[in-house]
Amino acid sequence: GWANLLARRWKDAVDDYSRALQLGSDNPQVVTQRADASAELGEWEAVTADLERAAATDPDDYLARYQLGVSYLARNDTSAYGRVCAAMLEHFMQSPSAHAANDVAWACVLTSGATPDQTPVLELAKRAVGQDPKNYYFLNTLGAAHFRSGDYPSAVTTLGDAMRAHNGEFLDQVTSGSVVQQAIPARLVSDEKGTAYDWFFMA
Hints:
With 203 residues, the chain is an all-alpha fold.
């Protein structure tokens, strides 16, 4: 499966991972990598099913939950996306991991209205920045959270810090994995791609 995934033979990868699961594989990456291959094929119901399974198997896997939320966005199911965000906020609110805090916060700012109360999102984003104040990705997430909360002056300040932290280079935020790469362009409007540069001019 992995060899076919690397070779971009998506259907063969799906078939290989499915056979591995039928043979009783308990490797959680088999499920998430099958989801990646299915995303490349645009088979979003299969992607969601696999990521629901991965999230249920390991509730602490914040990346699987993040990808799950994104898969719902690809299906234009903002209600389900909102439920995933709410569950992530509840589960990871006390997590000591800066990366978990950042990625959960980022997942909840990808589109407007999914998290009516931005207070916990801001709290997580601030916690991540507090642990690593010069981290571009963390600053970008905090700036986006300020933007979603309507605090545009703070968004401008924080996103400016993010751009300076990255020496003027603007990279997409948390776009690893086929699920995210395929889903975000399919769902988000062109001026919400997720770089500090984009958010700065929106704010």
